[in-house]
Amino acid sequence: MLLAIDCGNTNIVFALFEADSKIAEWRLETVARRPADEYFIALCHILETQKLYYTDIEHCILASVVPDVTQNLIRFCEERLAVEPMVIGEDNIDLGLDVQTDDPAQVGADRLVNAVAVAKAGHVPAIILDFGTATTFDVVLPASPKSGKQAIYAGGVIAPGVHRSIEALVAAAAKLPSLVVDSFDDKLPVLGKSTESAMKSGVLWGYVGLIDGILSRLKAEPELAAAKVIGTGGLAALFAPHISTIDRVDSELTMNGLFEIFNRNTKDNRG
Fold first, then answer.
1. What's the mean pLDDT in 173-178?
2. Contact residues for 34 (Cβ-Cβ < 8 A; gap 6+)
3. What is the pLDDT, as a whole number, of residue 267?
């Protein structure tokens, strides 16, 4: 059995794979000093619902963009599960990508994992739009057959995330109320008639404008004219109905990418 871990700035997502199927998924808030025992307790609770045991886990793969948490997660795998995890970003991990950026080591592990998932599915050229702590756009292009790579990671765009933008606005403006973004009226007017409706308009239509604007500029590049736009991340399903340029939403993109990388880098991927 495989335990896949995606550690982001806001949440850590865990998934269990048996053979080719995901059998469980859960998440915890990202906390820098969370001890290994807390991860282990949460894991055992999930395993109990599946009538499984932690000793059934034979492999772990980890993608993390939070260095302070990465080491705790590695210790959790090594000390509690007795498994040495495969860590995205280590030199011995083959992603099957030609990373064409100024400094490939600076590219977030989650962004590379998403690119692997898109390449595996054959959806290149593609633009991955990830609604996370940051709102990111990642460009994936076809690789030359002679390169031995599945695809080219060509670079991307990083914009402020929706929740962090709201938090910054509320913190800086004393009279603005906090705003929870969990749904949008399909006919939300641009012109707000209250502070809350004006803020919702700014969030929805402001981000729709930002996303449409960046996508139109990216798609003006000849190699991206026919690119599919794939949305992922926590708010993708919420924003996608309002953004006509999103071709589809894939909430499983990162976990699918981790599973593909594991398969690519091990001969014995059953368990």
1. 92
2. 28, 69, 72
3. 66
Give, rounded to a whole angstrom, the gap between the first and last alpha carbons of the chain: 4
Q: Is the pLDDT of residue 61 over 90?
A: yes
The rounded distance, in Å, linking the Cα atoms of 206 and 192 is 13
- Rounded-to-integer distance, Cα 170 and Cα 177, Å: 7
CB crowding 144-161: b at 16 or more within 10 Å, else e: eeeeebbbbbbebbeeeb
Section 61-75 average pLDDT:
95
Active-site residue (options: 6, 37, 102, 110): 110
Burial of 127 (0-12, 13-18, 19+ CB in 10 A): buried
* Structural domains of the chain, with CATH: 2-87 (3.30.420.40), 97-256 (3.30.420.40)
Q: DSSP class of residue 173? A: -
Residue the block writes with tokens 């860590």: 87
Given pLDDT bands bounded at 50, 70 and 90, which one contains residue 160? Answer: very high
Q: Is 110 labeled as catalytic in the residue annotation? A: yes
Taking only the tens place, the pLDDT of each residue in 130-153 is 999 999 999 999 999 898 899 999
Per residue in 188-215, pLDDT tens? 899 999 999 999 999 999 999 999 999 9
Closest to 184 (Cα-Cα) out of 252, 248, 240: 240
SS3 148: coil
Find out whether the peptide bond into 125 is cis, omega within 30 degrees of 0: yes
d(CA 245, CA 262): 32
